[in-house]
Amino acid sequence: MNENATGRMESAAIATRKRDVGGVFAINLTPVERVLQRSSLIGIGEFRCPVEHPQFLGGGPQTCPYIVFPRTSVRLTPEHWRSEICTPNVVSLHNVGDTYDRHPVSLEGDQSDWIAVSPELLRDIAIPYVEGRHAEANHIFQQPFAPMAPKIYLAQRALFLATQNDSELPILAVEEYVINLVEAVLQSATRYWDRPSRPAKQMDAVSMRRQWTIADEAKTIMALQYWEPLSVAQIAQHVHCSPGYLCRTFKRVTGFTLHGYLQQLRLRASLQLLADSWMDFAGIAEHLGFATHSHFTDVFRRQFGITPTEFMQRRSKRLLQTLSQMPSLLQATV
Q1: Distance, CA of 27 to CA of 301 (rounded, Å)
Q2: Taking 50 as the threshold, does the pLDDT of residue 9 lie above it?
Q3: Distance (Å, whole) CA 303 – CA 265
Q4: Four-point Cα dihedral 61, 76, 276, 148, nearest 10
Q5: Residue 209: in which H helix or E strand, if any?
Q6: Do the Cβ atoms of 333 and 188 come closer than 8 Å?
Q7: What is the pLDDT of residues 203-260, one digit of tens each?
Q8: Among the residues of 42-196, which ranges form H helices?
């Protein structure tokens, strides 16, 4: 690690308020974070960091495992992994001891929600997914990033909306919901990590770096313009490759098609617009680039399993009711 990174971490460590509630596992809280729910097993919180804030530079080392759900797009560079664009279509996963650098993609900064899990609970949940693998005690997550299926995204948004709006949720219901959600994330991520991602002919390091770069540049374009009617030809021109090569590469690297990735960015943005309730459905559809109100509703129902109206009705109910009505987490697929 370079001197700048070391200095940044030391400064962050000084600024960090280490809270250890009632003797349970420690969660590092920075000045730009807020805890929504806390127990001996889990923590639920939100991270809202402007680009100009010193904390934006990065974080770690982590004192517990984190699952982070981005709501804006940023570039993260884990200490032992390649730099990658994180959008609301992915989940970032942090083991105990992990550190990372952060760089802006837009002026929105880093807005994300997170779940902290006690190391013992995570090892228990992960048993079916690490059996037969070499997994260190504090290194459960094989990789720091994975695509997030639509229904998993919907489920975590329902959880955070519920905890933000209701401070008296039964902790038993919250813990059970979080355990199911963490298992769904692990199941989906493991399926992605284990997929055959390379062609029969082994690629050299230069070719692999080129593919990662192309995919990241394409993700950046879509993250900054997801409401625009982008075409394959436009994106290919920006990333300096042929349309066919772009389509093959993007699918291989990200697990998404280009159209699927763009559509998911729009749909995931729609959940916050629906929650804010300052636009009608037709306005949201137009704002996000859907052809019509009915097109938006059809795509929303097909991907999330419920309609926008049903989401609006359920988001205000207590978590116990939401849990019984949301689509099955474990049936979610990427």
Answers
A1: 37
A2: no
A3: 12
A4: -100
A5: helix 205-225
A6: yes
A7: 678 888 899 999 999 999 999 999 999 999 999 999 999 999 999 999 999 989 999 9
A8: 119-130, 150-165, 171-193
Show Cβ contacts of residue 320 under 8 Å, excluding neighbours closer than 6 positions: 170, 173
**CA atoms of 154 and 37, how far apart (whole Å):** 19
Contacts 24+ apart (CB under 8 A), 168-173: 169/37, 169/318, 169/319, 170/319, 170/320, 171/37, 171/39, 173/319, 173/320, 173/323
Angle at 29 between CA 23 and CA 35, to 5 degrees: 80
Q: In whole angstroms, give the CA distance from residue 234 to residue 238.
A: 6
Nearest-5° angle of CA 147, CA 236, CA 238?
100
Establish whether the linkage from the previous residue to 61 is cis, with ω within 30° of 0: yes
Residue 117 CA, distance from chain mean position: 16
Is there a contact between 147 and 188 (Cβ–Cβ < 8 Å)?
yes
Which tokens is 222 given? 């879509």
In this structure, what token pair is assigned to residue 188?
A: 């989906």
- Per the structure block, which two tokens stand in for 206? 């230069």
Q: How far is Cα 89 from Cα 267, in angstroms, rounded to an integer? A: 10
Q: Which two tokens stand for residue 4?
A: 């700048």
